Amino acid sequence: MPTNQTSTLSKTIFYEKLFRQYPKNDSQSRGMAADRKCLNGTAILLLEWYDRTARVLPWRERRSLYGTVLSEFMLRQTRVATAVPYYLRWLARFPDFRSVAEASEAELFYLWSGLGYYERVRQLKRLCEAICAAKSPPTSPEEWQKLPGIGPYCADAIASIGQGYDVIALDANGLRILCRLSGAGPFLSRSAAERALRPLADGLAIPGRCGALGEALMDLGNGHCRARRPDCGACPLRSRCAVARMALAPEDFPKFPAAKTHRQERPRLWLRDGEGLWLAASDGRRLTGLYELPTLPAGAEAGPVLCTLRRRIASTDYVEPVHGAGHRLKELLAALRSDGQDVRHFPPAQLSQLPTSGPHGRCIGALLARESRLSNFLPQ
Ligand code: SF4
Q: Does residue 250's CB lie within 6 angstroms of at least one atom of ligand 1?
């Protein structure tokens, strides 16, 4: 959408009415009373819809503070459908804060293996240790934010969903919905959008139901108000939505400056001998504790490319062509060791027990399966 159209929209009556930061509990202003009524009506519509249609999720079925914390960690940068089986496995093995605090990092990494963003594992362990060391868990977002691995959104989500604190947690779904309801923007950054939309979220708050309202925003953002191709026709907030009422493209909200991305190529090695596969223990802070295919040392020569891995982490696109060793296995192993890579040999039966990053784990499985199919055609 053209920028001037966006800025026109940001000046709509709807936006102006909802967005003024009236002091809370100032009932002298009739305008404010109207705004509060409008926001309260929106919150009630949202809650009615949530109470009828809330997603059934394991951390909602049996609620506990630990379950809320765990789900919030797992859902960072991860889709709900991906997180659910990991959540169930983790809960069966580590049922409370203490069990995580006392577990070794290797055990935790093994169960997290494939979920990505592995720094979360270490943060979760540190958080559980801090909670176990304290007399009792924190009870407000401000206190939660003092603990390891807890940012403003996570603190609001844990306090409201897990402890009934009266604040609405705004994740990316919530921000998108409020932006579309109000027609606000464009914004210079996500934090600018959070600051601008916070008064609107506070205006939606209904004491005692803020956790449910936060979850309702998550469900609406997942089900109807999706980033792409939102389903406005079936949306329970359609009558309250500035973007829908003006027949604007919801995909244009929220609007941010285009992010700069970088491309980084990192060739990898498939080092196979008759008895197993050589993998490298990762030493990067983000992936410590996991095994990956070794990185081709600078200046070393390898065989042809077998496949190419692609993944985006934050604003970097990683491209990883995986080379076979050709006839250079010994030479490459020597080069890897002098390059400082911690390469270790694993028999195939052990590979499925190793903590690996998701893309490398899938690549190892696919290349082993390909080798096994090819061996069927070779003379015995
Ligand atoms: S009407 Fe459409 S754009 Fe507006 S909140 Fe609902 S799904 Fe989102």
A: yes
Q: How many CB atoms neighbour CB 28 within 10 A?
A: 8
Do 282 and 201 fall within a single domain? no
CA of 181 to the centre of ligand 1 (A): 7
Same domain, 362 and 317: yes
Q: Is the CB of residue 290 below 6 angstroms from any atom belonging to ligand 1? A: no
Which of 20, 26, 6, 8 lies closest to 196, judged by CA? Answer: 20
Distance from Cα 136 to the centre of ligand 1, integer Å: 41
Establish whether residue 175 lines the binding site of ligand 1, counting it when its CB lies within 6 angstroms of any ligand atom: no
148 & 223 share domain: yes
323 plus 241 within the same structural domain: no
Atom of ligand 1 nearest to the CA of 241: 4
Tell me the sheet residues that pair with 307.
322
Q: Which atom of ligand 1 is nearest to the CA of 224?
A: 7
**DSSP labels, 52-92:** HH----HHHHS--HHHHHHHHHHTTTS-HHHHHHHHHHHHH
User: What is the rounded CA–CA span in Å between residue 131 and residue 128?
Assistant: 5
Specify whether 55 is located in the same domain as 140: yes
Ligand 1 atom at minimal distance to the Cα of residue 220: 7
- For residue range 340-374, list pLDDT tens digits in order: 999 999 998 888 888 888 888 889 989 988 888 87
What is the 261 CA–ligand 1 centroid distance (Å)? Answer: 29
Are residues 190 and 268 located together in one domain of the fold? Answer: no
CATH number at residue 314: 3.90.79.10
Residue 317 is part of which domain span?
A: 262-375
pLDDT in tens, 105-119: 889 998 998 888 888
Check: pTM over 0.90? Answer yes or no: no
